[in-house]
């Protein structure tokens, strides 16, 4: 028995050494002085990403529609007593992903100020709650425009620049709902699945061009996402859902995003065990997944009527 344990311990040493050396040798990238463009930087996860990357020495370009909120984020960064204020490292850019056709001009304007974009964090997004067959087409259209089309347009323009300089890193903020879809989130889940699929195709296409593609699929995060989400008629949901209120702290998720950039991680599913299990179930035992979702839909039927 002792001999057995002894052999086991000895056998583990090379494995442990291998794992440790891989960890140490891995070129952890620094984001100091890197130019990071963050969409949806006026609140929630985007705002926390702005803080985390700024604290780590990056030049941050903060994009969103609400200029006043971007100003507030800038001021809170400059007021942070822990770091010496460096206003040159914060650039604000108003941008509406729902309006197509002008994002390339905006990207060129940003590059003319910063001379480059090293990292793009596609974080802006809207969510939705409603009964699919009662939902106005314009609501689907809005979700797809903000979460997919606008993001594709912006990314394509930034990518052209990255391909020319043969380097760059793109992080797409998807969701667990980019992997599985739950009832009463049809438009949101569809948009996040599209984003996820697009990223997987793109990752392969640009892998030989020195460009990294990361996708993070988080579970609930404690932000205003549910408050800001739209209903079947396009109105603001305006409710802080219990699930969202109990979600992960956005700062924690922002730190995971930073580590994904530093360690060049391609995909992180940041979710509790039962969410991961659901993702596996959907892949290996779909009929069981469908049955569970049917029950969930029935249970929640009256919540979205
Ligand atoms: N919270 C969660 O539970 C959760 C879970 C998984 C994934 N996510 C994802 O995390 C990302 C960030 O969301 P959040 O939770 O931080 O929610 P949030 O607080 O509502 O933030 C959404 C951000 O997107 C921006 N945005 C919305 N519509 C836009 C448009 N048309 N053009 C440009 N920017 C727009 C908003 O800025 P303006 O209003 O100023 O434009 C805001 O900064 C989203 O992609 C979301 O899907 C969230
Ligand atoms: C992120 O998603 C957007 C929208 O689907 C897409 O345009 C972009 O290419 C994706 N980025 C990467 C790096 O895959
Ligand atoms: C949600 O929005 C309200 C009003 O804009 C703001 O006071 C609050 O801090 C926001 N909460 C989060 C978690 O971002």
TrEMBL record:
InterPro entries: NAD(P)-bd_dom_sf (IPR036291), Sc_DH/Rdtase_CS (IPR020904), SDR_fam (IPR002347)
Pfam families xrefs: adh_short (PF00106)
Domain of life: Eukaryota
Sorted UniProt keywords: Membrane, Oxidoreductase, Transmembrane, Transmembrane helix
GO molecular-function term, one example from the UniProt record: oxidoreductase activity
PROSITE patterns, per database record: ADH_SHORT
Transmembrane segment boundaries: 6-25
Single GO cellular component term: membrane
Family matches, as Gene3D superfamilies: NAD(P)-binding Rossmann-like Domain
Family: Belongs to the short-chain dehydrogenases/reductases (SDR) family.
Reported function: Putative oxidoreductase.
Name by which UniProt lists this protein: DgyrCDS12629
Species: Dimorphilus gyrociliatus
């Amino acid at each position: 028995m002792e001999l057995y344990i002894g052999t086991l311990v000895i056998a583990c040493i090379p494995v442990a050494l291998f794992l440790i050396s891989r960890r140490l040798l891995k070129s952890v990238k620094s984001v100091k002085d890197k130019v990071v463009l963050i969409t949806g930087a006026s609140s929630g996860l985007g705002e926390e990403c702005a803080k985390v990357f700024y604290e780590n020495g990056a030049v941050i370009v903060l994009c969103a529609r609400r200029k006043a909120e971007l100003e507030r984020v800038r001021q809170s960064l400059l007021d942070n007593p822990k770091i010496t204020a460096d206003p040159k490292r914060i650039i604000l850019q108003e941008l509406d992903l729902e309006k197509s056709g002008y994002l390339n001009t905006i990207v060129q304007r940003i590059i003319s100020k910063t001379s480059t974009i090293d990292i793009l964090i596609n974080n802006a997004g809207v969510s939705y709650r409603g009964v699919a067959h009662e939902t106005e087409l314009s609501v689907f259209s809005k979700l797809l425009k903000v979460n997919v089309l606008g993001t594709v347009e912006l990314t394509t323009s930034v990518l052209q620049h990255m391909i020319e300089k043969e380097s760059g890193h793109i992080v797409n903020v998807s969701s667990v709902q980019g992997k599985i879809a739950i009832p009463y989130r049809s438009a949101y889940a569809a948009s996040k699945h599209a984003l996820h699929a697009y990223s997987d195709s793109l990752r392969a296409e640009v892998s030989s061009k020195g460009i990294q593609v990361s996708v993070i699929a988080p579970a609930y995060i404690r932000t205003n996402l549910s408050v800001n989400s739209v209903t079947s008629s396009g109105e603001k949901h305006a409710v802080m859902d219990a699930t969202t209120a109990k979600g992960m702290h956005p700062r924690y998720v922002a730190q995971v995003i930073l580590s994904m950039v530093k360690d060049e991680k391609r995909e992180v599913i940041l979710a509790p065990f039962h969410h991961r299990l659901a993702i596996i179930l959907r892949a290996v035992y779909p009929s069981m997944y469908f049955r569970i979702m049917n029950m969930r839909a029935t249970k929640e039927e009256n919540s979205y009527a």
